[in-house]
């Protein structure tokens, strides 16, 4: 979705803003722009008004950068934006900032009552230059400024008239020493510097300048000056203490890898070590209380767990559902948040909702969680981004600590979610007495060995690249089938999603037992079929499914444990994974699938880190 960066301080702001926007490129966008307030030295003393420069360009950020290099704009106060089109095509006129009178506005989100507001404004004789809902906000602020003396109060008055989800940042030549930043259900953080302050859609945009962040609440309107931040909420001044973020700026760099996605695939062992750190206590065969966001009392009283998520996080949630039932023996179900929120699901105070989201901002998951909360359920957020919206409405948070994930296709956040959900299952099982100390110890010991098992799989990267070239790229595969059973079913779904989103090859993930109920009709000599068959209780069954594929001349790419001969014998390609505890196989089987997709996309030359049409943080429905 859109990216916002604002700066106020003593430094020239364009490069700070453009570099910040570059760190937000992963959010997806189709145009970019910047507004800079330019106060010439001594101008205010002479009673001269500041200038407001607006520069916009369609396409990648490089286009805006080129224009700014050719014609630099001076100024130390400004705001920039990368736009992911919702209202109106990606044209220069629709690109942000939108300038009305003395005011320039950037916006992420959707103003729901834009139709009626536009009609009212047109009736008042207002002229629109774009098709965007954002321009409406700029008009409303401009109108309010005719009677209000400060940009802060004018923005508050304007925003009181709009409904919807938004993060808005405003600058004005009338008040050249302030930036206004407002948040309502769309992400916006403030970076606190020394003699300078920042606003941005996400933390990585500002890590080069500060590690101290204020996470705005919905309904907050902040006035940023170089030396001071004032925050208003419902007309009252409020204090929002800053939090120190322990992500380093280099974590948000490629560090020699060709793409962020590849770097993040290779970071998975470390990410999981960070997820486990301080939580797994081998001495007591338990998970540290206070580290998972669920009290012992709630763990005991919960009658049912409902896991809510979208996309990749939904796949982690399916594995989580299986673990919560098999390890903790608590009835559990998993739901797509986008469906759950619109059906009359039965939810009550005996339910524990586990919202799984790397960004913590996904609009559907957030809305589903709020609805379940209203109906009395307790909410646990399993989230990577500290201070994001979902943990703020939840009763407890279980942060995955995977570090910043920049590639749009989620990899390390997925495996960190798996680790968190497995720990949650162990925690629930131990509190409820349904998991023995002996089994718990064995699970946790094996879980601690998972990072090194993943490192072993990563050594197979060269094999994955060759297989991707031979079976997916050289053959120009248009369709692929991914099969798995049990815990390998969500991994098959995830493998198919990864391939689709970054290489644009159509792929389906299927529970292997379902193959004969339909998809088997697709199989012929052109069809690569990825069979995920680790050493678990489903192995023989999926080996039979592989035979059925082979009998129809399907080309099998087998993900099998070392020492497997049965499936390897009939497969065109074999990628080995280490033999791990049957409950932990997803951690090792997903890695070759991530690598296959990555190499297929890279060999095809697609935009791996920013696949077309996709956004990292999906803050609209
Ligand atoms: C795919 C991917 C998406 C997200 C989905 C939910 O690689 O990353 O499918 O998983 O948009 O996002 P979060 O996890 O932020 O709620």
Largest sheet: 8 strands, antiparallel
Give the name of the CATH architecture of the largest domain.
Answer: 4-Layer Sandwich
Query: Stretches where pLDDT falls below 50 for ≥5 residues?
Result: none
CATH topology of the largest domain: Glutamine Phosphoribosylpyrophosphate, subunit 1, domain 1
Q: In one word, what is the shape?
A: globular
Task: Count the E strands.
Answer: 27
Over all CA atoms, what is the radius of gyration?
Answer: 26 Å
State the end-to-end CA separation.
Answer: 11 Å
State the helicity in percent bands.
25-40%
Q: Approximately how much beta-strand content do the residues carry?
A: 15-25%
Summed over residues and divided by their number, the pLDDT gives a mean of 93
Count structural domains.
3
How do the strands and helices of this protein lay out in sequence?
Elements: E1 3-8, H1 14-23, E2 31-38, E3 51-58, H2 61-70, E4 77-83, E5 98-100, E6 103-111, H3 114-123, H4 134-145, H5 151-159, E7 164-172, E8 179-184, E9 189-192, E10 197-200, E11 212-215, E12 220-224, E13 229-233, E14 236-238, E15 243-244, H6 260-266, H7 268-276, E16 280-281, E17 286-287, H8 296-301, E18 304-309, H9 311-326, E19 332-336, H10 337-340, E20 351-357, H11 363-374, E21 378-383, H12 389-393, E22 396-399, H13 412-432, H14 437-458, H15 461-473, E23 479-484, H16 488-503, E24 506-511, E25 528-532, H17 539-551, E26 555-561, H18 566-570, E27 573-577, H19 585-604
Parallel strand pairs: 18-19, 18-20, 20-21, 21-22, 23-24, 23-25, 25-26, 26-27
Antiparallel strand pairs: 1-4, 1-10, 2-3, 2-4, 5-6, 6-7, 7-8, 8-12, 9-10, 9-11, 11-15, 12-13, 13-14, 16-17
Helix pairs in contact: 4-5, 7-13, 7-14, 9-13, 9-16, 13-14, 14-19, 15-19, 16-19
The structure holds fructose -6-phosphate (F6R).
Fructose -6-phosphate binds next to helix 9 and helix 16.
């Amino acid at each position: 979705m859109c990216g916002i960066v604002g700066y106020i301080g003593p430094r020239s702001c364009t490069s700070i803003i453009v570099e910040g926007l570059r760190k937000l490129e992963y959010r997806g966008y189709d145009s970019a722009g910047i507004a800079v307030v330019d106060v010439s030295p001594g101008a205010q003393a002479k009673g001269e008004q500041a200038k407001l420069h607006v520069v916009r360009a369609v396409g990648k950020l490089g286009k805006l950068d080129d224009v700014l290099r050719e014609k630099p704009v001076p100024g130390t106060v400004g705001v920039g934006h990368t736009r992911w089109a919702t209202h109106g095509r990606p044209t220069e006129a629709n690109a942000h900032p939108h300038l009305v009178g003395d005011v320039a506005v950037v916006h992420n989100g959707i103003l729901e009552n834009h139709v009626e507001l536009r009609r009212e404004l047109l009736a008042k004789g207002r002229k629109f230059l774009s098709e965007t809902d954002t321009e409406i906000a700029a008009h409303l602020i401009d109108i309010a400024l005719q009677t209000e003396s400060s940009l802060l109060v004018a923005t508050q008055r304007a925003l009181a008239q709009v409904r919807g989800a938004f993060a808005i940042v405003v600058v004005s030549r009338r008040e050249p020493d302030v930036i206004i930043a407002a948040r309502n259900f769309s992400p916006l953080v403030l970076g606190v510097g020394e003699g300078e302050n920042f606003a941005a859609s996400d933390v990585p945009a500002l890590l080069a300048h500060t590690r101290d962040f204020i996470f705005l609440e919905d309904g907050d309107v902040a006035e940023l000056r170089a030396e001071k931040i004032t925050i208003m909420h419902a007309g009252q001044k409020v204090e929002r203490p800053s939090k120190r973020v322990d992500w380093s700026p280099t974590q948000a760099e490629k560090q020699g890898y060709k793409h962020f996605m590849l770097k993040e695939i290779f970071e998975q062992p470390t990410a999981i070590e960070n997820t486990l750190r301080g939580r797994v206590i081998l001495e007591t065969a338990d998970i540290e209380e206070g580290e998972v966001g669920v009290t012992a009392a709630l763990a005991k009283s919960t009658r049912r767990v409902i896991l809510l998520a979208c996309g990749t996080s939904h796949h982690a949630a399916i594995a989580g559902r299986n673990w919560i039932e098999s390890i903790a023996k608590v009835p559990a179900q998993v739901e797509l948040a986008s469906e759950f929120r619109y059906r009359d699901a039965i939810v009550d105070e005996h339910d524990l909702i586990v919202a799984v989201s790397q960004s913590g901002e996904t609009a559907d998951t957030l809305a589903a969680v709020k609805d379940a909360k209203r109906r009395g359920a307790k909410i646990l957020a399993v989230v990577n981004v500290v201070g994001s919206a979902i943990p703020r409405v939840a009763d407890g948070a279980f942060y995955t600590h995977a570090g910043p994930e920049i590639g749009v296709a989620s990899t390390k956040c997925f495996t960190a979610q798996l680790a968190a959900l497995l720990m949650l299952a162990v925690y629930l099982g131990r509190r409820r007495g349904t998991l023995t100390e002996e089994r718990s110890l064995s699970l946790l010991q094996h879980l601690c060995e998972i990072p090194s098992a993943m490192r072993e799989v990563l050594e197979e990267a060269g094999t994955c690249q060759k297989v991707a070239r031979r079976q997916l790229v050289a053959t120009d595969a248009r369709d692929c089938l991914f099969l798995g059973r049990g815990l390998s079913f969500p991994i098959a779904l995830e493998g198919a999603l990864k391939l689709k989103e970054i290489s644009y090859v159509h792929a389906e993930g299927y529970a292997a037992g379902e193959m004969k109920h339909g998809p088997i009709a697709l199989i012929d000599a052109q069809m690569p079929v990825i069979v995920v068959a680790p050493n678990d209780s489903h192995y023989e069954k999926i080996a039979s499914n592989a035979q059925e594929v082979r009998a129809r001349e399907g080309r099998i790419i087998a993900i099998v444990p070392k020492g497997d001969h049965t499936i390897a014998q009939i497969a065109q390609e074999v990628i080995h994974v280490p033999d791990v505890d049957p409950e932990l196989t997803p951690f090792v089987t997903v890695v070759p699938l991530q690598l296959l997709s990555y190499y297929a996309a890279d060999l095809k030359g697609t935009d791996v880190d920013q696949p077309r049409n996709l956004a990292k943080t999906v803050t609209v429905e």
